[in-house]
Amino acid sequence: MKNAFRSMSLAAVLAGALLACGDDDDPAGPGQGGNSVSVGADTLKTDSITVDRNESVTWTNSSGVLHNVTFTTNGSPANIADHTSGSNARAFPTAGTFSYNCTNHAGMNGSVTVQ
């Protein structure tokens, strides 16, 4: 029983360490919490999202179409460059509403509200 407990404890410590090592392009990064925005061919399937301070939001583009995330609010995290697929996460340590758009496609606008 002791060995099983030690194995479970070690697995929990390793899992926590792996999560803490995530960078801001890693959808499993710290505080990710399942907050996601799906990017379609010419739409944002989730155009507004509300999160708590210090949580991250992940934008996932599986459309094969070139998109970016360009923030238009002062104090926003770094923009997400043009890409045709993949996931990118950004952390939001400050409360407020952070607007963004895809500069490649008119009408693809969204916001992240941080409580």
Put the structure in a nutshell.
By secondary structure, this protein is an alpha/beta fold.
Key phrases:
Immunoglobulin-like; alpha/beta; 1 helix; 115 residues
Named at the architecture level, the CATH assignment is: Sandwich
- Tell me the distance between the termini: 44 Å
In what order do the strands lie side by side in the largest sheet? 2-8-7-4-5
Number of helices: 1
Proportion of β residues? Answer: 35-45%
Radius of gyration: 17 Å
Q: What name is given to the CATH topology?
A: Immunoglobulin-like
- Number of domains as seen in the coordinates: 1
- Per CATH, the superfamily is Cupredoxins -  blue copper proteins
Low-confidence stretches: 4-33
Major β-sheet, in short? 5 strands, mixed
Averaging pLDDT over every residue, what do you get?
Answer: 80
Structural class: alpha/beta
